[in-house]
């Protein structure tokens, strides 16, 4: 059997890594000090293994014959002693060790037809057609211990286990062992899928230094030299020094995995893409993946990662088959049906249209001929736009909301997107600004062209009464954009100050994007953590263009890279009407191109 290279991941398990010498001596098959997945991806499809040879014997059976699998590690309270030595020591849903036979399986699940391999181009239709079968398929997977689990249960190792029978991420007593493992295995990437605290419970102890301080773990020094915050994750970079040798380790910390739930599939795809994109090409070192218990979120991420590679190399995937392989190495990987379903959904998003982030140099090079007179260049935009239209969520009028929160590249809920209020809706509009503490309103049109704006926009030296609110004009400015300062007073005389920002010209011109870029630039440099309100005539036209250009510029400034297609795609998951015409989509590209070419700090602008 050929082992696929490079190693997919390291999973933090067992006794939590004792010493380097002990690690090497006690490398066992399952639940040992260190477990390295060197799984042959061929195991997913080769051999035509009969997945019906595995099942669960359920202590409690509900009405449809399937056990309720909704409980997760995070759903139980494990605080039964001191926070470090005894916290979260009880297994969240402890199972008896079950060794299954073909007879048991035939008696219990012979009626279930398992889905084995799925062709990638049929993945979406297969999910739609077989949704109910996936739940039964998940229930057939083996649970509990199927191999001897000895090392982690030794008396001198028990204090290093976060849970009684599941041995996951770092605790205070295991941090030195953790960093020794990182050094021993030449690890350069750590994927962290839990927050330190969730719902008042410790999920993982902080194993890295804060600020500019160094931390020593035995004779290993850890220093943090970079930390970047994105909307859904944080990337930290550390130098790791031992015996006058130093290495760089990058941690990818997904911070928005909902407790008791699963992340947005496309957001997980984008995160995974960032991990792969920044991996050192020559590195064959494994990647550490951990959450809290090391089986639910960790298993979901590992399965998605491996099945992406499998789908790309062979054109088919076998989710149940791969999880069976994972559980033969570590029990209960992918803990809930929701996580199992999330793997399918993320794979669907990945293979609909992979994330394709370009360096700025590559982007500028690709844009050289796109806005010339050659009609063949326009075909590329048309094909890309058609692909975007084919995969965006279906829209119907019942889905419409007057206002929606949207995420920027760096912040969750950075925008409130809505339409200009009517005279009857002006009070609700002002109340929304106050309730969400939004202190900036960005208009997609000069307000002189919006008749209804007179119902809520005060004139200089005059006070405008709107319901119980009094609005007072407090001056403004007009350079690249027109800014009007307005103070809102409610019936209790509480004040809320806002800036109303208008373009000085039309934003629809592909030939001249200066007005649009000025509006975006103003919004990017607003010193506020509150959501920015974006308004247009229908709450969609030009709003999507504005948000897309805003997000792309944030990506350029943060990463020196850009992906217009994925940026628009993410926005369309919330509002499919965004960038719904080829002209608007082209306007996004042209604005990003013009931004790069007119920003002197980018040396590649002259390429």
Identify the notable features of this structure and list them briefly.
Prot-tyrosine_phosphatase-like; 18% strand; disordered N terminus; Protein-Tyrosine Phosphatase, Chain A; Tyr_Pase_AS; 22 strands; Tyr_Pase_dom; eight-stranded mixed sheet; 31% helix; protein tyrosine phosphatase activity; Receptor-type tyrosine-protein phosphatase alpha-like
Q: What is the global morphology?
A: globular
What structural class do the secondary elements suggest? Answer: alpha/beta
User: Into how many domains do the coordinates divide?
Assistant: 2
Strand count, sense and barrel status of the largest sheet are: 8 strands, mixed
Would you identify the regions where 5 or more consecutive residues have pLDDT less than 50?
1-113, 602-607
Q: Using the coordinates shown, work out and report the CATH topology of the largest domain.
A: Protein-Tyrosine Phosphatase, Chain A
Q: Please give the CATH architecture of the largest domain.
A: Alpha-Beta Complex
Total number of β-strand segments? 22
> What's the alpha carbon Rg, rounded to whole Å?
27 Å
- How much of the sequence lies in strands comes to 15-25%
In oligomeric terms, what are we looking at? single chain
CATH top level of the largest domain? Alpha Beta
CATH superfamily of the largest domain: Protein tyrosine phosphatase superfamily
Q: Counting H and I runs of at least 4 residues, what is the number of helices?
A: 16
Distance between the termini: 49 Å
Please state how the strands of the largest beta sheet are arranged side by side: 2-1-11-4-10-9-8-7
- Mean pLDDT across the residues is 79
